[in-house]
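User: Continuing from earlier, I have the next pair ready.

Assistant: Great, send them over.

User: Here they are, in order.

Assistant: Folding the first of the pair now:
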Amino acid sequence: MIQFPRPHASRVDPLFIVMPAYNAAETIEPTFDRIPAGVRERIARYVVVNDGSKDATASALHRLQQGLPNLVVLDHAANRGYGAAEKTLLRYARDNGAGGTILLHADGQYPPERLADLVAPIERNEAEMVQGSRMLGGGALGGGMPLYKFVANKALTRVQNWAFGMGLAEYHSGYLAYSKRVLTEIPFDLLSDSFDIDIEMMIAAHILGMRIVEVAIPARYAGEVSHLQPIRYGLDVLAIVARYRSGHYHRMLGRSRDGTGQS
């Protein structure tokens, strides 16, 4: 059931949905179909990056545009990676005045039915960044997350909470909502071109004193093709931990480890 913001909440306008798409011909239209009517009425712009897809993703997007005149399609001639696609999307949202931006994946694993829940904490001025977490409320295993992914998620999250001191239930969901402040203050172009960009966005928000809220979402594993390589991803996460502990992200953001600005 969609939970709309409380009556006293301030609407976040204009609201953008942004989506990286790579070889998503079979899933992208069903994902759009699942966006609730009440949310559709609020979306100023849908923005999709076709990241060098080799299947019929371009044809699927063309069909979607016939019914969605506010759907903008951006193209990468060659596949540049998830993080690079996300940077293109966030840059477009920032430069075109998005008041709030929701990152939705084209494979349908993250529930479009929960879009209103994701943006609500920003509208209530409770957060600058919101993550849809599968590890809250039993959504992960209940939704069919493979046991090895569940265990790896828990183990990496434990290490990350030790390193970052953020106390999150997970860091590995790419279902995220950003306020305007996030896109204007975080130098996301300096971050990873791979899947770990989402973790780096959370780290940057934390260092800059932004509030991060988690919202429980169900997991959905229905045979979608994942382009994430688990072993490489795990190693990348540990590399992020090492860079954080060395002060890399604080230097990038002009902050000292005690939270003050660098001289």
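And the other member of the pair:
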Amino acid sequence: MRKILDLIVVNLIILLALAAACIGQDKAQDNDKATRGLPAYRNPFLPIPDRVADFLQRMTLEEKVDQLAGGRRRMVAFQDPEGQAIFQKFRGLFGNDSQASAHDAADLRNQAQRYVMEKTRLGIPMLFTGEALHGYMAYGSTSFPQVLGLASTWDPALVEQVFTAAADEMRSAGTNQAFTPVLDLARDPRWGRTEETYGEDPYLVSRMAVAAVNGLQGTSWSIDRHHVIATAKHFAVHGQPEGGTNTAPGNYSERIIRESFFVPFQAAVEEAHVGSVMASYNEIDGIPSHINHWLLDTVLRKEWGFQGYVTSDGNGLQMLVETHHVAADKAEAARKALAAGVDFDLSDGTVYATLVDQVKQGLVPESEVDLAVSRVLTTKFRLGLFENPYAPPDYAQQITNSPGHKQLALKAAQKAIVLLKNDGNLLPLDPAKLKTIAVIGPNAADVHIGGYSRDPGPGNQISILDGIRKRVEPGVKVVFAEGCKITTGKQGWSAWYENTVDIPDEASQADSIHAAADAARKSDVAIVVVGENESTNREAWSEQHLGDRDSLDLIGAQEQLVEAVVATGKPVVVLLINGRPLSVNFIKEHVPAILEGWYLGEQGGTAAANVIFGDVNPGGKLPITFPKSVGQLPDFYNYKPSRNRSYLQDGRAPLFSFGYGLSYTTFKFENLRVDPPQVGTSATAKVSVDVTNSGTREGDEVAQLYIHQRVASVTRPVIELRGFKRVTLKPGEKTTVEFNLTPDALSLIDVDMHRVVEPGTFDIMVGPSSVETSAVALQVVQPTFIPTPAATPPSK
């Protein structure tokens, strides 16, 4: 009987295999019929390299260069009246002040796409690009917290959700590529672009990098119609410029570059398969990134296996001529950049437009053009643009700033807020015990969402003042006093574009400061909202448009405002809205409760009110150090041991440390252990710690894992982040947080520039911040190999 059953099973397997083969054959025949007569590049069933190869042999030199010099112009398309009309619509519809709906934006891109698909010789779809630093940068789209705020969540899963939403809004409007994430390490907060980063630590930024890219692109190689190509920028060493000024040199050693600045980019390439990388404006060791063969070819492509395309930064190729002076003219800049590995000219396209004549003159091999074109075409095939080039306008209107996305923006903002101080448990405020609340400060009534933003649209942005007014109990009076101004002129996201920054004279603010103090004196509590705005902290893209600072103190009369309110003797809460760490020494010393909000996005007012009044327990942690002054810079936490001297009349301790953040409840870290306590250089150890909510409220804590190698062949940082996990615990609840400490986490780059794990003793530290940890030792040993005895030959 068993044999009969076995025979039946075998026959069934054979029949199923035959059926599958027939189905596969029928499908192949159907595919063959559907694609018969199509050129190979139009056949979606062929491998992408085959389609690209077929395409290249059909293209003229002008058509090839058009793929590389698109930027803000077109060489082939838009030459007749119909194309010019579409181009003019673009100029009118997508300006900074445009209020085009998502539906209309998608429709116009469809018109342009239809033109190039149907009216040009080969019908190559356009690759529409855009910004999505903290949400799709388009009118009406959801504005999430600025990137430094997203980093404060220490929640990669949440960051992936944010960029999944941003990608959906972006792709549905017809935009296919996002010029984000920014993976620079922010190691000099004078730099105006600090707000665009995920902070100062390589490991934290690398985890956010993978999350952001996966959110934007999805997790498969083929990118579906709800996702876009991500662009890792700015490659590389852009976040610690000399003097803290934008685009200044990043002249650091190769070891420092590899152990710090490269880490997030390598993760984005190797783990998340990012589709594009943008070269940075700066130079490294005298070589601008746009012509750096070692950077763009040796490291990015050969070492890491990058398969996407490299784009210049806007006007980055022109800077080779005008700023760096490493090229005499645009033609030489084009030759050098193309040879180094820059595939696309982002700006007006005039640099790479010179390639047509240069190839014809024999100055540039056409093979170099072909290689760059193949990478751009591969990106378009990866996006499925040849099969699905058009956007869905109705869906775009439906998904853009949808209720679900607004709720996600609120959740992200609430998780981003960091509680820096809470003496006497002043927070959370109990509105039932308050009769009058004074809301004071230049950032209270206006909505500040940071740079690379657009107007989220009417009803989609909530100020701190509005959030508090909506949250308080009926009968509670909320009075507002601006107190002082940070700048005059435009306020909010649009101020980011203004060249002129006017800061009012401090003396002129005396009357308004007096009025604010009087409002505080007549209230039960004062909530003071100070910091920066979009024109004082931003990308400095020219000498006429500055955004870096030589001070981290509060701008204008803000400190005098805080001093006046504190002098009333009333309880004071300070909420910071800003894009970089600030030297708020007076506030730390004299104000009992301090919250850091960064730029909280469109739902920031609601989020802040929910935290202030205790509907939400803050659990954010700082992704960057707060120095006492610019004199402490650089002041990142993972410094080398020889930086062990204090300043005369002061120490080296910062105002607030990396990883720091309080809660309305308390947590205990206990029973730290590592298993096994001794491992070989190629083995993994498990680190465990028990975390208990020892307070009376539910709350979030971030368990942070750090390491330090006591003795090594090259100097090691005093402490390095190697893992983190945000957990939510009810009062009295305990959980065990576990980390896997891999050989890669223990490795270093040795004297011969090889990445190795060296035997020795490692301090394994876990705690709620970089300065509050307990430690255990891990012994790493060189494995001992016992040779296998040779087999005894048989006796004769």
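Worth noting for the second one:
The chain has a mean pLDDT of 93. The radius of gyration is 29 Å.
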